[in-house]
Design a protein that fits this description.
By secondary structure, the chain is of the alpha/beta class. It has two domains: about 200 residues, Nitrogenase molybdenum iron protein domain (Rossmann fold, 3-Layer(aba) Sandwich), CATH 3.40.50; about 130 residues, Nitrogenase molybdenum iron protein domain (Rossmann fold). Helices cover about 30% and strands about 20% of the residues. It is globular and about 55 Å long. Belongs to the bacterial solute-binding protein 8 family.
Length: about 325
């Protein structure tokens, strides 16, 4: 777990712009910055095996995926976001999207190049995984960013040594740390409290259900992958699933996903299939593949094909919590 410690403040307080947009239907909101929050305190912490030092609350942050951009916006930090990366890969929720209208988009559907990222002059970068810093892909490495004076924070569940064992509740550690870094601890605490309450409510509803066998897959054309570890596995566990694929299986000893044959999935006869998609076209194509390839599978026969947004399975996103309920309600509608 990442641990945060305070060191003496080195610069003056920075006032937040108060933002108050309520999210219709799901109870989340953009939390106004409380009076006195945002003080420019310096923070040091351990993150992904590195020491991260932030000299005062960042003023030019970049969310390296829409999920991280959303979290910054919900903490009331729109005025401190200098760029939103991969913004065209996934739309922001409708209630926070207006807050990002004037924030530069960098990277399109992929992480930004080193040059594009540094062009917005960030002082803090928040990423879901370490992949976004792969120099071989032309992205800025963590070392290059640090040399440029940019602090880098990776979601706990996306750290290289945690990608196989990440849990949904890693998000709460991220919220504590981001709240500390930006001086918005109260706003972070509200999101944590709501998240814990949501998970507790789902757990209570599922206390007496007979668990269904559920396989999580990803389909790209005709390539079929099984998901058996990491945050994705924990999401299904919290949603009351009896996971067909699990971290203790040899196929997932080194990576959370493994390419499988249709025959091997068919032999498991899962009661439900959960699959992530990046847009409506991808969802339609995946449903067509699953229904035509496995017409006699219980999951297909009983119409338990559950699509979730690919953004919501990224580490360090509020979607990790919301899709626990989404999946649980579709698996066990009578429990809610």
């Amino acid at each position: 777990m990442t641990r945060v410690s305070r060191i003496p403040a080195r610069s003056a307080a920075i006032a937040n712009v108060a933002l108050a947009l309520l999210l219709a239907g799901c109870g989340s909101s953009v939390t106004p910055a409380s009076e006195g929050s945002g003080a420019a305190a310096a923070v040091t912490l351990e993150n992904c095996g590195r020491k991260v030092v932030v000299d005062g609350a960042p003023e030019a942050a970049v969310g390296m995926h829409p999920a991280q951009t959303e979290l910054l916006l919900r903490l009331g930090l729109a005025d401190r976001v200098a760029g939103q990366a991969q913004a065209r890969a996934q739309a922001l929720p409708e209630d926070v999207a207006p807050l990002a209208e004037d924030i530069p988009v960098i990277g399109g559907v992929t992480p930004p190049s080193r040059e594009d990222l540094l062009a917005v002059e960030p002082d803090f970068v928040y990423s879901p995984t370490t992949y976004e810093f792969t120099a071989e892909q032309g992205f800025a490495s963590i070392e290059q960013l640090e040399q440029a004076g940019v602090a880098v924070y990776v979601a706990n569940g996306g750290c290289k040594d945690r990608r196989m064992t990440g849990e949904v509740t890693d998000l709460f550690t991220d919220l504590e740390n981001i709240g500390e870094i930006f001086g918005v601890e109260d706003a972070a605490a509200e999101l944590i409290e709501k998240g814990r309450a949501d998970l507790d409510e789902v757990a209570k509803a599922l206390a007496d259900v007979d668990k269904l066998r559920v396989a999580q897959v990803y389909v790209d054309g005709t390539t079929l992958q099984a998901i058996g570890a990491g945050i994705e596995y924990d999401i299904l566990r919290l949603a009351g699933a009896d996971n067909v694929y699990a971290p203790d299986q040899p196929a997932f000893a080194k990576f959370f996903a493994a390419t499988i044959t249709p025959e091997s999935l068919a032999s498991e006869q899962p009661d439900a299939l959960v699959f992530s998609v990046y847009d409506e076209k991808h969802e339609a194509a995946t449903r067509k593949y699953l229904t035509t390839t496995f017409p006699d599978m219980p999951a297909v026969r009983d119409d338990r094909l559950i699509a979730v947004s690919s953004a919501d399975v990224f580490p360090g996103t509020l979607g990790n919590i919301s899709i626990v309920r989404q999946i649980a309600e579709q698996l066990y509608p009578d429990a809610f």
